[in-house]
Amino acid sequence: MTTTDVSVELDAGLAARWRDLTARLADIRRRYPDAALASSLAAEDMVLTHAIYDSGLDLEVFTLDTGRLHAETLGVLDAVRERYGREVTVYRPIAAAVDEHVAAHGAFAFYESVELRKACCQIRKVEPLKRALAGRGAWITGQRRAQSTTRGELALEEDDKTFGLYKFNPLADWSEEDVWSAIRALGIPYNPLHDQGYPSIGCEPCTRAIRPGEDLRAGRWWWESSDSKECGLHAGNRVISIAARGD
């Protein structure tokens, strides 16, 4: 499938969104040649991965293998390789740091407090992300405003003060229906856990399927309150959300 075929496969509204998306990505590449997509291998990130590879854009796609991902999530890497003939760059946590944390607090300390959960995320996700972003001018995410309360004010692009570079959220204004319509129409590979009630997928022990009517990210760190459900990769989201509410 090439970009010239998209209008045939998508309805008029979504075809326009797709053209806008590929134009946004091309503009990001023009402004920041070293920008990269940080992919969780979830549905939104697969839409972006397809848009990047299908458009022939020279943008790197990388993921963070925390050491505790579902087998189905890791299997998406094989699906990408088979479909696009491209390799997603994989960053992993520093083994010694993981071992030290587990020795001090136990393998499941993240259930005990938000602080210990965030400490685990810091080691397994945030530190590897810092290495992945080192020296870059910008990064790209698959975040959407409709995903959670912490993302309701999400901008299409922003100055990411947490990591000290520019950040693009090109799917910020996409709906869940937009994402899945594109996946189905274009035959984009995706994590099979999405078909089992997992709209948002993280580490295996920290993710469950959601129940009918629940928030899309309710299955992430489900034992915590809804306004704390960020791991540090998008720490600015909660700050923006609080400011918007006037809390």
Globally, the shape reads: globular
Derived from helix and strand composition plus strand pairing, the structural class reads alpha/beta
Strand sequence of the main sheet, in spatial order?
Answer: 3-2-1-4-6-5
Count of discrete domains = 1
Q: How many strand units?
A: 6
Organism: Achromobacter arsenitoxydans SY8
Protein name: Adenosine 5'-phosphosulfate reductase
Keywords: Cytoplasm, Iron, Iron-sulfur, Metal-binding, Oxidoreductase
Binding site for [4Fe-4S] cluster: 120-121, 203, 206
What does this structure look like?
One of its GO terms (molecular function) is metal ion binding. Residues 36-209 form the Phosphoadenosine phosphosulphate reductase domain. This protein is of the alpha/beta class. It has helices at 6-9, 12-31, 43-54, 71-84, 95-105, 114-133, 176-186, 236-245; strands at 36-39, 60-64, 89-91, 138-140, 157-160, 165-168. The protein has one domain (3-245): HUPs (Rossmann fold). Helix content is 41%, strand content 9%. A 6-stranded mixed sheet has the order 3-2-1-4-6-5. Helix 5 packs antiparallel against helix 6 (114-133). It starts with 5 loop residues before the first helix and ends with a helix.
